[in-house]
From TrEMBL:
Family: Belongs to the class-I pyridine nucleotide-disulfide oxidoreductase family.
Protein name, as recorded: NAD(P)/FAD-dependent oxidoreductase
Residue ranges occupied by any FAD/NAD(P)-binding domain in the UniProt entry: 7-321
Keyword set includes Flavoprotein: yes
Keyword set includes Transport: no
Domain of life from the UniProt record: Bacteria
Organism expressing this protein natively: Streptomyces yangpuensis
Cross-referenced Pfam families: Pyr_redox_2, Pyr_redox_dim
Pyridine nucleotide-disulphide oxidoreductase dimerisation domain boundaries: 361-466
UniProt cofactor(s): FAD
Keywords: FAD, Flavoprotein, NAD
């Protein structure tokens, strides 16, 4: 039997971006339905950001403690891994989403469990696990927020090797004796840090020339050096030719181009993401199934007055916080259009996702941490800006030396010489992730360098790096 229900807004996908669309449209007084086939809260809550940081936090805290005189000797022993996993399980709600459902109930949003597909303009069909069919229609907007899935390349033998993806890497119940990681991305770098710290012997195989290729080159170099010092084997410029696992409970052998074999007990393929759009009915409205969904600055799909896409699925920025930001922008735009009020679509306007391209922050929770916002030097030069990169040794800041003995790190800011504002900044070092929001404000606010002189960093904090960077810029003249 098919049940038909009408709403103002129907949201496909219950991850952070989808939840934020629901929150903003409900706050505007619109009736909203959320369709989710797995757990409400999505990849971030159960298999990505949250569990990975729960695994990483004790590893990083121990590393920091070992750099503090008077404390180092107290943390020489192994981590209590059972407690680490229990803490991880607590933060994932033991992979149950009742807390998220309670929140949806509290704001008056409806949840429809099942697989949702577009079947026509403003119309979504939902098939429940019991086969029940429901049809949801939207007076104002359908929002696609279905996110991404891990990509496992079609390497010979990969299917029989039962590789981990990010899901298995963040939900595993024990550390494998030997973990081989293929990839050089954030997932590869963070999971190498986590599992090396939790007791695995880690080997990282990177096709490219460095880790963290989307950041300034020195970021990946610092992380790779630290992993090697911790005992990991990090190799760059290598390619996987095939994978062999003869016994499901036995070791996996990774054959590299040239014939060398790297053996492990588990294999993590951290080789990219693809949009979850292959079976959501895009063809029913004239779009290509399986592809990224292009959007304008309000996150509306060009050619439609009712279809939006937020989060990873639109490929603007594959980061949870940016997906939530897009959802706030799109939710405000949907509400304004529903009310017939004008939109503010100027750069940095209330209905324009400007930060996606001009002030996008990212933090990588490796040891040392790496954090960046805006453009790298190479990106700024490719975009035609006349810029100067200003670098400083983060370890030469008083606050850093007090934070950790032998502190090692680096900072860079990219200055637009024509406008005297920052286009980007990158920090690498213990605790460096906490520096990125100040940089984000400077970049998003287009704060003049002359005004930044008057933003005095407290002494003795690692934030003194701002003063040193500004002094270096002044001295370069």
């Amino acid at each position: 039997m098919t049940e038909a229900v009408e709403y103002d807004v129907v949201v496909l996908g219950g991850g952070p971006a989808g939840e934020n669309i629901v929150d903003r449209t409900r706050a505007a007084g619109l009736s909203t339905a959320l369709v989710e086939n797995e757990l409400v809260g999505g990849e971030c809550s159960y298999w990505a950001c949250v569990p990975s940081k729960a695994l990483l936090r004790p590893v990083l805290a121990r590393a920091d403690a070992r750099r503090v005189p008077g404390l180092a000797g107290a943390v020489d022993g192994p981590l209590d891994t059972a407690a680490v996993y229990a803490h991880r399980d607590y933060w994932t709600g033991d992979w149950k989403d009742q807390g998220q459902i309670d929140w949806l109930d509290s704001i008056g949003a409806d949840i429809h469990r099942g697989h949702g597909r577009l079947v026509g303009d403003r119309t979504v069909a939902v098939t429940g696990s019991d086969g029940e069919q429901r049809t949801l229609s939207a007076r104002h907007a359908v929002v696609v927020a279905t996110g991404t899935r891990a990509v496992v390349p079609d390497v010979p033998g990969i299917a029989g090797a039962r590789p981990w993806t990010s899901r298995e890497a963040t939900s595993a119940r024990q550390a494998p004796g030997r973990l081989v990681i293929v990839g050089g991305s954030v997932v590869a770098s963070e999971m190498a840090t986590a599992w090396q710290g939790l007791g695995s012997q880690v080997t990282v195989l990177v096709r490219g020339s460095r880790l963290l290729p989307r950041m300034e080159p020195f970021a990946g170099e610092f992380v790779a050096d630290a992993l090697r010092e911790a005992g990991a084997d990090v190799r760059t410029g290598v390619a996987v030719e095939s994978v062999v696992r003869e016994n499901p409970a036995g070791p996996v052998r990774v054959v590299l181009e040239g014939g060398e074999v790297v053996e492990g007990d588990e294999l993590l393929m951290a080789t990219g993401r693809a949009p979850r759009t292959e079976d959501i009915g895009l063809d029913a409205v004239g779009l290509t199934p399986g592809g990224w969904i292009g959007v304008d600055e309000t996150c509306r799909v060009p050619g439609f007055d009712w279809l939006y896409a937020v989060g990873d699925v639109n490929h603007r920025a594959l980061l949870t916080h940016q997906g939530k930001y897009q959802a706030r922008i799109a939710g405000a735009a949907i509400a304004a259009r529903a009310a017939g009020t004008p939109l503010d679509t100027a750069p940095w306007g209330a209905h324009t996702a400007t930060a996606d391209t001009r002030a996008l922050p990212q933090a990588v929770f490796t040891d040392p941490e790496a954090a960046a916002v805006g453009l790298t030097l190479a990106e700024a030069e490719r975009a035609g800006h006349r810029v100067r990169a200003v670098d400083h040794d983060l370890g030469r800041v008083s606050g850093a030396g007090l934070y950790a003995d032998g502190y090692r790190g680096r900072a860079r800011m990219i200055v637009d010489l024509d406008r005297e504002v920052l286009l980007g900044a990158t920090f690498v070092g213990p605790g460096a992730a906490e520096l990125v929001h100040a940089a984000t404000i400077a970049v998003a606010g287009e704060v003049p360098v002359a005004r930044l002189w008057h933003a005095v960093p407290a002494f003795p904090t690692v934030s003194e790096i701002w003063l040193r960077l500004l002094e270096a810029y002044r001295d370069q003249g």
